[in-house]
Automatic annotation (TrEMBL):
TPR repeats lie at residues 196-229, 230-263, 264-297, 298-331, 332-365. Gene3D superfamilies: Tetratricopeptide repeat domain (1.25.40.10). The keyword Nucleus does not apply. SMART domains: TPR. Transmembrane segments: none annotated. Pfam families: ANAPC3, TPR_16, TPR_8. Keywords: Repeat, TPR repeat. SUPFAM superfamilies: HCP-like. It comes from the Bacteria. This is Uncharacterized protein. The keyword Cell wall biogenesis/degradation does not apply. InterPro entries: TPR-like_helical_dom_sf, TPR_rpt, Ycf3. It comes from Desulfosarcina alkanivorans.
Length: 451
C-alpha cells in the first residue's frame, strides 16, 4: 500500500478482492528480511566496556522520559549496519554491529548530550535533544561519512523528530525505525526521513499480519502528515472494506478519486464495494472506467466478466473472462467463471476445458470436480471419468446434496441403479429435492426386475 511508482503500479495485487500496492514491492530485496526481523531482538544490551552508556530499548525510553522531558525538540537516528565490518577468524562474515560502526554513534550522542541503545542485532537508535529535522539530516550525513568501506557507506539511517503531529516523545524511537524500514526502498547507504510513506509501509506490515486496526491507525496518521496521499486514502478504504464498513470505504475511495481522478485502484475498489452492496450496474460502471484508464488489469477485467455473468449477459461476459485467464493463467476463480459462462452459452466442450483448468490449479476444488463430472455426463462421454470426478467431490463435501444428486445422475447413466437410488435418496435427505429422480429410478429398477 506504499507510495506508488510506475513500476510498482504494475505489481498490484488483490486482497479479499480489493486492489492495493503491497509494500513488499518497495522494500529492497537484499535487506527486507533484515529490516523486518531485526527489531526488538535486543531487549537487554550486552555489557560492553567500550560503550558503558549503551542502553537497551527500555533504558532509552526511560532516558527520553526523564533526561529529555523538558526538551521542546528531539531528533532520533535509527542506524542499521548494511555490510559486515569484518570477517570472523573462520572466514565467515561478522553479522553483528562492529565497534567501528557503534563508536561514531556513541561519539555523536556524547557530543550532543543524547542517549543511544542497541535495538536489534544490526540496529542502533540514538536520540538527541534540542535538534530539528534539518540538524538531524546534517548529523546523519556526518555519521554516514564516518562509517564507510573503501568509500562506500556501510550503514542506512532513518530520521525522525519530535514534535510530529500527535506523537509523544517516547514514540520517536518507533518512528525512526519506521523511517529505517522506509529506507529499504532506496537501498543501502541512504538517509530517509519519517513521513507519510513510512506510515504507509508500516500500515501495510500490520495489514499483512492481519492487524487491521493497527494498519488503519497508521494510515490515518499518515493522512495527518499528508492529506493528499492517494495511496493512504486507498489503503484506508481497503481496511474499511475488509471490515465491511462499506460507507466509510466508499468515502475513502471517493476522496482518493477526487485527489487523483485517473487512479485505477480507487475506481476499481469503489466498484467492488458497490458490488458487495448489490449495486451491480454502478459497480460495472466503475469497473469499465478503470478498464478504460488502464486495460489488462486482471482484477478489473475479471470482475467486469463476472458481474456480466451474474447479470445474465454471458455473451458480453465471455471476452472479458477469456482476457482474464489470459492475463492470469493461474486464477482458478477466473477459469471457474469462464466455465459457468461457456456452460450458460451451451458450449459444453469449451466449458469442460475451463473446469479442467480449475482442477489443474486446485485439485481439491469440490465444486469444479462435481460440475466437470456433470458436464461429461451431459455429453454421455467418459462416464467412468465423470463418476471418479463426482465421487471425489462427495468425498470432499459429503453433506452437499447437489453433489450427491450429480453423482446419482452419473450412476444412472452408467446403469448402476442401486447406486443411483442411494445417492438420490441422500441428496433428497440433504435438502436438494431429488424426489422425481428417486421415483424414476425406482420405476427403472422395477422394469428391470419384470424383464
Amino acid at each position: 500500500m506504499a507510495k506508488q511508482t510506475p513500476e510498482l503500479f504494475k505489481n498490484r495485487s488483490a486482497t479479499k478482492e480489493f486492489l492495493f500496492s503491497p509494500s513488499e514491492d518497495l522494500i529492497d530485496a537484499g535487506s527486507e528480511k533484515e529490516i523486518c526481523t531485526d527489531r526488538d531482538n535486543a531487549a537487554v544490551a550486552p555489557p560492553n566496556a567500550l560503550f558503558p552508556d549503551m542502553l537497551d530499548r527500555k533504558g532509552l525510553a526511560d532516558a527520553i522520559d526523564t533526561r529529555m522531558a523538558t526538551a521542546s525538540m528531539l531528533c532520533a537516528l535509527a542506524v542499521r549496519m548494511d555490510r559486515p565490518s569484518r570477517e570472523r577468524p573462520d572466514g565467515q562474515e561478522e553479522t553483528g554491529l562492529g565497534e567501528d560502526a557503534a563508536m561514531p554513534v556513541a561519539r555523536l550522542c556524547r557530543a550532543h548530550d543524547g542517549a543511544w541503545a542497541k535495538t536489534g542485532r544490526n540496529r542502533l537508535v540514538c536520540v538527541l535533544p534540542h535538534l530539528a529535522v534539518t540538524d538531524g539530516g546534517r548529523l546523519a550525513r556526518k555519521l554516514m561519512d564516518a562509517v564507510t568501506d573503501n568509500g562506500r557507506p556501510r550503514i542506512t539511517i532513518g530520521v525522525a523528530t519530535y514534535p510530529t503531529i500527535n506523537y509523544t516523545r517516547g514514540q520517536i524511537v518507533d518512528n525512526a525505525e519506521k523511517a529505517l524500514e522506509h529506507a529499504g526502498f532506496f537501498g543501502p547507504g541512504t538517509i530517509t526521513r519519517f513521513d507519510a510513506v513510512s506510515l504507509n509501509i508500516s500500515g501495510d506490515r500490520h495489514y499483512q499480519a492481519g492487524d487491521i486496526t493497527a494498519a488503519m491507525d497508521e494510515f490515518q496518521k499518515g493522512l495527518l502528515l499528508d492529506p493528499a496521499d492517494v495511496n493512504l486514502q486507498n489503503s484506508l478504504g481497503v481496511c474499511h472494506g475488509v471490515l465491511k464498513d462499506y460507507d466509510n470505504a466508499l468515502a475513502a475511495f471517493e476522496k482518493a478519486i477526487w485527489l487523483a481522478p485517473e487512479d485505477v485502484m480507487a475506481i476499481y475498489n469503489k466498484g467492488y464495494v458497490l458490488l458487495l452492496q448489490g449495486n451491480r450496474e454502478l459497480a460495472l460502471e466503475c469497473f469499465r472506467q478503470a478498464d478504460d484508464r488502464e486495460p489488462n488489469v486482471f482484477e478489473v477485467v475479471f470482475h467486469i466478466g463476472q458481474t456480466l455473468v451474474e447479470m445474465g449477459k454471458n455473451e458480453k461476459a465471455r471476452p472479458y473472462l477469456e482476457d482474464a485467464v489470459r492475463i492470469n493463467a493461474r486464477s482458478g476463480p477466473a477459469f471457474k467463471s469462464l466455465g459457468a459462462c461457456l456452460d450458460a452459452l451451451g458450449l459444453t466442450r469449451e466449458a469442460i476445458q475451463a473446469y479442467k483448468n480449475v482442477v489443474k490449479i486446485y485439485p481439491e476444488d469440490a465444486d469444479a470436480l462435481s460440475i466437470l463430472g456433470q458436464l461429461y455426463t451431459r455429453l454421455g462421454e467418459s462416464l467412468d471419468v465423470a463418476a471418479v470426478l463426482c465421487e471425489q467431490s462427495v468425498r470432499l463435501r459429503p453433506d452437499d446434496g447437489v453433489f450427491r444428486h450429480r453423482l446419482g445422475n452419473v450412476y444412472l447413466n452408467q446403469g448402476k441403479l442401486d447406486h443411483a437410488l442411494a445417492e438420490f435418496e441422500l441428496a433428497d435427505s440433504l435438502g436438494h429435492g431429488s424426489r422425481s429422480q428417486i421415483e424414476a429410478t425406482q420405476e427403472l429398477m422395477m422394469a428391470a426386475k419384470a424383464s
